[in-house]
Amino acid sequence: MNPNQPVPPPQILPNTGHSGHNPYEFIVAGKQTKRSSFLGGGSFFGKIALILGSAIVLIVVIVLISSALSPKGINPKLTDIAEQQQEIVRVAEAASQQAVGQDTKNFVTNVTFSVSSGQQQILGYLEKHGTKVSAKTLALKQDSQTDTLLTNAATAGNFDSAATQKLASSLQTYISSLKDAYNQTSSADLKQILQSDYASAQVLATQAKSLQTSN
Q1: How far apart are CA 109 and CA 91, in angstroms?
Q2: Among 178, 177, 180, 184, which Cα is nearest to 197's?
Q3: Spatial CA neighbour of 206 closest among 163, 174, 149, 168
Q4: Alpha carbons 204 and 4: distance in angstroms, whole number
Q5: DSSP states along 40-55
Q6: d(CA 196, CA 117)
Q7: pTM of the full predicted structure?
Q8: Among 11, 142, 159, 195, which residue's CB has the most CB atoms within a 10 Å radius?
Q9: Could you tell me the residue ranges of all domains in the chain?
């Protein structure tokens, strides 16, 4: 070979990807390792955590929806009715200790049993829908003037008449409240409770009227 003859440049063959090393392979490989399915990638415990997290979110959503749909608008009215029931029962129980006539004793006993039963249903409904009524709240309608009235009636010798008249008046207010609450609610369960209490209160009111006539 003639040392003066120029040496031809080396021939560079194109890289077709079928052989040889791809200098950009690390870039492609990096992108491929980051791809994974939503549940296909990650550890077993990671998948469990994801499932539990989704379940917790679903439960929270259900609780919020249930809370929003609960008939809370009627609750203050029902609480007021429970307070009325408490005062009616209190007066009836006090009257049972001082009533003279057997008819009056029977009447106040019926009032105590019937109204107490109705109150338990009302309080149970309220608690089921997120409102627990305290004893302090139930006593809000306690009327000291009623106590004075009955004390004076006992001294004057007309306790039975005074107690019957007071309970009759309270029952009429109670009946009106039950009717209003019934008209305000769309709950079938609550309507049934209110209708039952209303019917019982009407019977008691009729008994009171009969007693007032005979006295």
Answers
A1: 11
A2: 178
A3: 168
A4: 134
A5: TSS-HHHHHHHHHHHH
A6: 10
A7: 0.67
A8: 159
A9: 41-70, 72-214
The Cα–Cα gap between 151 and 161 comes to: 13
CB half-sphere exposure, 195, CA atoms < 13 A: 9
DSSP string, 83-147: HHHHHHHHHHHHHHHH--SHHHHHHHHHHHHHHHHHHHHHHHHHHHTT-PPPHHHHGGG--HHHH
User: Taking residues 168-195, what's their average pLDDT?
Assistant: 97
The answer to whether residues 160 and 101 touch, using CB atoms and an 8 Å cutoff, is yes
Both structure tokens of 207:
């008994």
Please name the amino acid found at residue 185. Answer: T
Is the confidence at residue 123, as pLDDT, over 80?
yes
CATH of domain 72-214: 1.20.1260.10
CA distance 200 to 206: 10
Per the rule left: phi > 0, alpha: psi between -120 and 50, beta: everything else, 130 is: left
Provide the terminal-to-terminal Cα distance of the chain, rounded to the nearest Å.
Answer: 149
